Amino acid sequence: MRLAVIPGDGIGPEVVAEALKVLGEVVPTAETTNYDLGAARWHSTGELLPESVLGELRQHDAILLGAVGDPTVPSGILERGLLLRLRFELDHHVNLRPARLYPGVRGPLADSSEIDMVVVREGTEGPYAGNGGLLRKDTEHEIATEVSVNTAFGVRRVVTDAFNRAEARPRKHLTLLHKTNVLEYAGSLWSRIVEEVSLEHPEVTVAYSHVDAAMIHLVTDPSRFDVVVTDNLFGDIVTDLSAAVTGGIGLAASGNLDITRRNPSMFEPVHGSAPDIAGQGLADPTAAVLSVSLLLDHLGQKESARRIEASVAFDLATRDQASPGATHAIGDRLAALVSSNVRPVTQ
Amino acid sequence: MRLAVIPGDGIGPEVVAEALKVLGEVVPTAETTNYDLGAARWHSTGELLPESVLGELRQHDAILLGAVGDPTVPSGILERGLLLRLRFELDHHVNLRPARLYPGVRGPLADSSEIDMVVVREGTEGPYAGNGGLLRKDTEHEIATEVSVNTAFGVRRVVTDAFNRAEARPRKHLTLLHKTNVLEYAGSLWSRIVEEVSLEHPEVTVAYSHVDAAMIHLVTDPSRFDVVVTDNLFGDIVTDLSAAVTGGIGLAASGNLDITRRNPSMFEPVHGSAPDIAGQGLADPTAAVLSVSLLLDHLGQKESARRIEASVAFDLATRDQASPGATHAIGDRLAALVSSNVRPVTQ
Ligand SMILES: CC(C)[C@H](C(=O)O)[C@@H](O)C(=O)O
Ligand SMILES: CC(C)[C@H](C(=O)O)[C@@H](O)C(=O)O
């Protein structure tokens, strides 16, 4: 297994180190190569993602990213020039974001009923296409447009992936989130494709929810969701909420997948680089470790993936929630649990 | 005061009746005219909003709407043909949505710290402009686009309104919600205009939050928000969440305002027509009553508006939360409180 690692900025390198520690327990032969992309490189060389680096990244089986970003970099530079560019160049059309309320974790909701959902967010089109412009800038008559681009090709592949995932889960339930009553063109395309693909998956029950109504459901009745499929921007918004109600982005993992495997997929914790706590051992590496679990699952190492997730679940259920320990201590615990082949408490 | 009333479908007529009962206590001379727009009219005549009705609506000081919609009407018909058409025809550029956690109300969050915010949502452009299309429909090469249209004119008037509201509130704080790191064109326009208008309001502190991060804040630290200004679609999404965390859309009121007063503004509870509970006296008219408070405030009757809100606050603090009473009983209580000139418990 050849892994490209982008530790990134702030707490990125710290959480990645622990994630690799845990990976080492299940795939001791994994080869890793570090790439110093992020705020530091941009500051020193002005580079975001040189073609040569992109070419090298393509030679790997997968990419693990810590976090990039720093308040000294103007907003949008790293996002568009590095993170989104990677998603688009490597055709990461499925942005996978599981949200599970693990036993022992207290989320912000008073009624902590079970939450175990996965959002399949489209990753390469929609309002993220970069399609738009400014007309008559800096005048009273300025117009700014943003074009959401949705293709049958792009929607079908992510919807198909979502149905496949739903079919493999016990509840076999899929919810399309959109805003079909207002965005009639994109809404029509998404609805028709969900209907079409559903014919090939008669065992999967299908629901639809407007994205605004889903906000309410996520805080009052989140257990209704199993697999959720949605567009790039709605997915961005809804996954921060699904992460928040399951204990926060500090625990949320994500995968940017090229389902065809033509390009390496990329795995990253949803949290940012948190420069305010960087270098102090305060960061929780759990989301990075869970991202490794997603990585292994994607590469077909299902058993190792499950073992890591079970170790995280065990640790979350038994840790001192108020002071879970330093970054490396949590990593050590998780590595020990993984190597001891802990009996899964959660499945 | 000449009021156009659109009772609408489902529980709409029931909650409107109570809202008018309460209005009668403070403005006994209000003249009301009913307009039977909604699902029933569409079913019997195919009409959504005839020009003649629109012309009559324009002759009023304000419009009170209950709720429209019915499962027998295909999604989008009433939304685009009636609700959004009214907003666009009557230039309702400020969509005002206060969210306040009233004492006594239990929201879904475990930590019920104070929430008292108001979202100023743009109402006449953005992704709601209806601008987009389908190309190569029903083929493998289909493309659906949705264009978010943002004008300096449209953004400035709503940002100006938001600053005015922030300045009039004790905390004088304004947050712009957007997704400037991805939607660079619209994000640039919104950011520049907020910056410009802020120069005229030195007392107002200004913050920015990405819309996805705001999802997290709204469930973990909602008290950070005072006035929020945002675009039409982000506003749609965020106001369902702000309503949810303050006790649900059953309590949420909204105003669709033409700030210039060239057209009547429209006030409506955020909840829908809830056909499943219609006609049983189960609907809570509180959101409709609060909409009347917004209506009076908009028409300059600040004292009456405050009296109604204070009555609602008193009722919410003292009612039996599990069984607050039948629709008309709640209306009777609120009317009695308003007429007794209840001492405000909340301000
Ligand atoms: C950093 C930003 C570009 C990114 C996005 O909008 O997709 C982030 O919010 C995420 O969800 O991964
Ligand atoms: C019914 C629908 C068109 C409407 C909207 O999207 O604005 C509703 O969700 C709202 O928030 O008032």
Automatic annotation (TrEMBL), chains A, B:
HAMAP family to which the protein is assigned, alphabetical: LeuB_type2
Recorded superkingdom: Bacteria
Homology family: Belongs to the isocitrate and isopropylmalate dehydrogenases family. LeuB type 2 subfamily.
Site (Important for catalysis): Y128, K179
Phylogenetic lineage: Bacteria, Bacillati, Actinomycetota, Actinomycetes, Pseudonocardiales
Binding site for Mg(2+): D212, D236, D240
Binding residues annotated for NAD(+), in chain numbering: G272, S273, A274, P275, D276, I277, A278, G279, Q280, G281, L282, A283, D284
Essential cofactor(s): Mn(2+); Mg(2+)
Protein name, UniProt field: 3-isopropylmalate dehydrogenase
Pfam families linked to this entry: Iso_dh
Gene encoding the protein: leuB
